Amino acid sequence: MRATLNAEKTRTVLRNSARVSLDVLLLLAVTVVVLWVVGRMWSVVWPLVIALLLTTLTWPVARFLRGHRWRPALAASVVTVLFLLVAAGIGTLIVLPVVQQAGDLSDGVVAGIQRVREWAAGPPLNIADEQVSSALDSGIARIKDSAGDIANATVTGVGAVASGLLNAVLAIFLMFFFLKDGPRFLPWLTRQLPGRLATHVPAVTERCWVTLGSFVRSQALVGLLDAVFIGIGLWIVGVPLVLPLAVLTFVSAFVPIVGALFAGAVAVLIALVSNGLTDALIVLAIIVVVQQLEGNVFQPIIQSESLGLHAAVVLLAVTLGGSLAGITGSLLAVPVAAMIAVVWNHVRDRLSDPEPAAVDPGTAVDSDAEPVAKTDPA
Predict the structure, then answer these.
(1) Domain extent for 168
(2) Is the full-model pTM beyond 0.90?
C-alpha cells in the first residue's frame, strides 16, 4: 500500500514538473517569436519606441496646458514645436563651438601625437622614428588597398543617416499624436478586451507608462546635474569644447553606466590632447567625483524606488542589451527591465490574492470591483 502511494506521489511530481517545463518552453517559444517579429518590424518599432520616450519627457508640459483648458490638438502642437526648437538649439550649441574650435583642436591633436612619438622614442620603449614612419607607411598602404571597402562603408553610413532622419521625422509625428490622443488609449483598450483582461491589461499598461515616464524624467534630471557639474569643472581647468562636452554628458546619461563611461572618456581624451597629462588627470578626478555623487547621492534621491531595480540588475540589463543590440540595446535595457518587473509584480500580486468569495448568480462581477447587479437587457 505504501509503495503504491509513493509511486502515485512520484507520478504526480513528475507530471507537475513536465507541465511546468512545457509552460516554460512555450513561454520561451513565444518570446523568440515576438523578438523575431519585432526584428522584422524594426523599421516601424524603433520610431515608435523613440516617440514613446519623447512623449514621456514632454507629457508633463502637455498635461499642464490641457489642464488649463487648452484643446488637445493645440497643446500637442505647441509642445511639439517647443521640443523641436529646444532640439535645434541643443544642436546649435554642439555644432558651433566645435566648428569654431576645430583649428585649435586639430593643432592639439598634432601636438599630442608629437608628444607621444617623443615619449615612445625614449626609454623604456626606444622606438626609432624610422620604425614609426614604417608603421605609418604600412597603415597608409592598407588604407589604399581598402579603398573599395571604405567607399562601401561610406555609402552604408549615408544610408544610415538618411534612415535616421526618416525615423526622427516619423517619431516626431507619432509624438504629436500620442500627446494629442494618448489619454483615449486606455478607455479604448478596455473596450476591446474581454473579461478580466479588460481590467488587468489596462492596469499593467498604465503602470508601465508611469514607470517609463519616471525613468526618462529622472535620467534627464540626473544627466542635467552631471552636465552642469562636469561642465563647470572643465571650464575651470580650461578644457576646450566645454559646452559640447556638457551636452554630450547630458545625452549620454540616458544610457546608464555605459553612457557615463563614454562621455567621461571623451572629455579626458580632449583634455589630454589639448591641455596635457596633468589637466587630463584633473578632469578624470572631476568626472570620478561627479559620477560617485551621481551614483550615491543624486540618483538614489531622485529615482528613489520608482523603478524598483537593484543596481546589479541595471548593470546586467545594460550589458545584455548592449551585447544583443549594441547602443540601442543599452538605451532600452533599463526601461524594458523595469516594465518586465512591473508585469511580474502585477502577476505575482494577482496570484497571491485569495480566491474570491462565491457570488450569487443574480449578480455580475466587474473584475476586482464590487459586485454589480445584473440588469435586464429589456
Answers:
(1) 42-142+157-182
(2) no
